[in-house]
Specification:
Elements (H helix, E strand, L loop, with lengths): L2 E7 L1 E3 L7 E2 L2 E6 L2 E6 L10 E5 L3 E5 L1 E3 L20 H12 L4 H17 L2 E8 L12 H10 L2 E8 L18 H15 L8 E7 L7 H14 L3 E5 L3 H11 L3 H7 L7 E5 L5 H10 L2 E4 L1 H6 L7 H7 L3 E3 L12 H16 L6 H15 L16 E5 L12 H7 L8 E4 L2 E5 L2 E2 L4 H18 L3
Parallel strand pairs: 1-6, 2-7, 8-9, 9-10, 10-11, 12-13, 13-14, 14-15
Antiparallel strand pairs: 1-4, 2-3, 4-5, 7-16, 16-17, 17-18, 18-19
Helix pairs in contact: 2-3, 2-14, 4-5, 11-12
Amino acid sequence: MTATLFKDVRSIITMDDDKRRLSNYDLLVENGKVAAIEENIELTDREDLEIIEAGSYFMFPGLVNTHHHFYQVLTRNIRAVQDVELFDWLKYLYPIWANLTPEAVYYSALVACGELLKTGCTTALDQYYVFPKQQDLNILDQEFKAGKDIGIRLHACRGSMSLGEKDGGLPPDEVVQTDKEILEDTKRVIEKYHDPDPFAMQRVVVSPCSPFSVTKELMEQSIKLAREYGVLAHTHLAETKDEDDFCQEKYGLTPLEYMEEVGWIGEDVWFAHGVHLNRDELKRMAKAGTGVAHCPASNMKLSSGVAPVPEMLELGVPVGLAVDGSASNDGSNMIAEMRLALLLHKLQHGITSVGPEDILEIATRGGSQILKQPEIGSLEPGKAADLFLINSKRLAYAGGLSDPVSALINTGTSHEVDLTMVAGEIVVRDGKLTTIDEEEVAAQTNRLAEEMLSEEGA
């Protein structure tokens, strides 16, 4: 593995405990880790060393995306569902997703991960939960292959849906599985792909889709299985008022009360969205250490509401940032997501409710805390060499360089970065992915999307 020395970095935003910002320091990367951050690091006679002059660059820790659905890349911008809320949106898209193939899963994962890497995200959590009856049960394996091929740090969910329409659930029966099928394949995926090493590039998360798409028995068995294997657990929760009505009607409980009843509370659990949670519920989550993946763009597009993120932070609920699926966001842009989060909460919760550094912390250290991977989320010696750089000399940043963090989030016409490194490997250089042919991947993905949509007349 080649060592890399970034020389004379204009500003290193460490996001360490003291939130240090270091001007004109060097950063040395060796063996996939940050080896040193010092002034004037001198190394001679190193044939394995690449030196990058970084005097005009701002350097940041890699961003951490805590909730996504990669496969939804294939169903972006469908006109029929641009103006509907979550339940109707899902009912329209489920039949299209029933046509997913292993090839489609692979290419959509490459696209989503590529977009993330090009916008400074080095670690991604993806929840995959669509297993069409006519397809190979091992379809999720294609996502692990894509993550490895493109070079992203991947936490992949073995998701599930077991409560079909005939049993009172939302998804059509052709994309649900039996509890037995789900639990057996979840064990297989954990045993084959989960890496407990502190610097792991691939981990597995147990992830029933939502309260309205799985049985109560599966929720109970899934959290039991996750804890037997020592892996994390994740699901959607409190995203919409419809979900609240569903839980009240079916179980006589709020969504969080239902999660508590089935054992889904604790430091090994986090929920996507958390829009409709009251203060008492947030206090219980904070006490248990249960986190939230905040998805501002998706919540805005589907008109789901605004998550009480400032209140979560005040009470000590772990919060990470997420782009959510590409069909409810239409992009996988983590820097744009930070900007939306900042503006949304200033509007909803007041001008001083959050600042740029608060949002960057959610997108780095917050994600690290939720995913239980403390080796990522900050730039410090001994931690993972996951980072990205933007060039301060770009026209779009002119006149706005007094605060690098605010420049990253508030300024600029493009959110694509100049360089991204994951585990010491440069995966984006000069704004281009180094591990895949972008044009070829885009072409294959467009072909697959057209095939899927044409089958359903969409």
